[in-house]
Amino acid sequence: MSLHAIKRTVDMQIIAEWVDPRSRVLDLGCGRGVLLDYLKQTKDVHPVGVDLDFDKISACVRRGLTAYQGDMMAFMQAFPAGHFDRVIFSRTLEELSEPGAVIAEALRVGKSVTVGFVNHAYWKNRADIFLRGRKPLNPVYTTEWFESRPTNPVSIADFEHLCASRKIRIARRAHLSGDWKTTCGFAPNLLAGYALYDLTQ
Amino acid sequence: MNDADDDLLVNTRSEPGEVGLVEARDFVAGTPFTFDNGQTLPGFTLRYETYGRLNAARDNAILICHALSGDHHCAGIHSLNDRKPGWWNNLIGPGKAVDTNTFFVLCANVIGGCQGSTGPSSLDPRTGRPYGITFPAVTIRDMVRTQKLLLDSLGIQSLYAAIGGSMGGMQVLQWGIEYPSFVKRLLAMATTAREGAQAIAFNEVGRQAIIQDPEWNNGYYPKSGGPRVGLAIARMMAHITYLSDASMDRKFGRKAVAAHHKPAPAAAMDVSELSMEGIDPVAPPAAFNVQFEVESYLRYQGQSFINRFDANSYLYITRALDQFDLAAAHGSLENAFAKVEAATLVVGFTSDWLFPPDQNRAIALALLRAGKRVSYAELSTDLGHDSFLLESPQLYDLVRGFLN
Is B152 a catalytic site residue? Predict the structure, then answer.
């Protein structure tokens, strides 16, 4: 298994622990439906995925998942408050424009919101900037800057700042070390490679 | 009712990858059928075709629903001399996305149609003359209810899927609402849950072209005659709405027709049609003869349509489209879908301006709000409304993935 695949699995296991069985789960930026498929099999959830890409939706359909091709904001705006038990952003956050507004909308349509993201302030990422003066390039950030989509890198401190300033309640958090397996209990903004948050209004 | 069970096992000759030679059959319902508008016919006929075999459990049947100008002949050929196979031959066949090695595929000409099913051009047994405009108003729901009687007559216990584009997609949605436990999967493409003002407007122009043609004669015309000019114009106009700016420009651009050009090849058409006299009995000044290829193409579309379609059927079926509004019929779209049990897939096409992506999205979103299992995919094409007939490996993969 590639490093990326291993990391992906750990990410999924933590999210699955937080998800209630048979709940209605919305995965924004669902890709090919790997996470939703896992949640369906382990937690028997009612999954809905949203993605922009036809082939990704097609892959979800092949897995027997329900998925919607389109803009996630427009999608959420079509639903009443609290329609979903949980809304998940798994490594989607940094590709959003106006993530604050998107999270606010997710907190409206979802009773809880799970956010998982790579900590851009992890020391190795800082080192890339500080020592090399270059954009991080590693198994997580796999593309050169000139081949990348525009991203909006976020750190743990950045995210906690958003929650504090918008009065978003953090019900649970998980900070993982650079291996994305062991829990990171000390100076997470410097030492954690990956962060997961469970939010409520 | 016909007794077609044994017929189902008749193997159609086929080449690898093709359905091959097929024959239409008639389902003759001998019991009265009451239309949504309250009128009753003593019986009716639906002409249909089938491909593949019904399995022992009788649960592998897929119903294909056709669009306004379509018919029951959606795959295979009727004779080796056929120029073209059925209209969805690219999707249906052995090893294709709708795999006839696995599925028993049926398609019936809709009630009110003119390709063998009972419609305005059929003889009214009570008068011995064509029904004409005494035929009951037809709805999408009438189409679906008559199809159900056909399936019952074949001993089909459930539908593995109902599939259709455009008006066919409306029937698919109606199937899910009308017979929720009978149909397991709904696949609706390039369609709408509510015929909008623009689509009604296009239909109305087509109907006026027919009705204002003196040959229409209040719907009473001989089988070979009738409002040929009006029907051809209706088809020319409608055909534009099935294409797109980009696809027309790519195909025709501003290409001029050669001098003395005869519009489009068609061995089967007689000379008077080729001369366009059927379109315009008054010889126009030379400046208004066909100059551009797109004009020639549209005139050909109009001319070939009048040879296969009945003007009154066109009036009836476009009205059925106009009347289709699931939200109004059930209070809201969510209410309309409340009873749906099937897993649903809705497919929109970016360049479809007759039933644009938004109208397809609205179906999926309402089903989701109603707590149903539905996916929505949107294919980027520039071929307009007719994109659902497109030869697209991406679309095939999606359909195959949904069915398997």
Answer: no
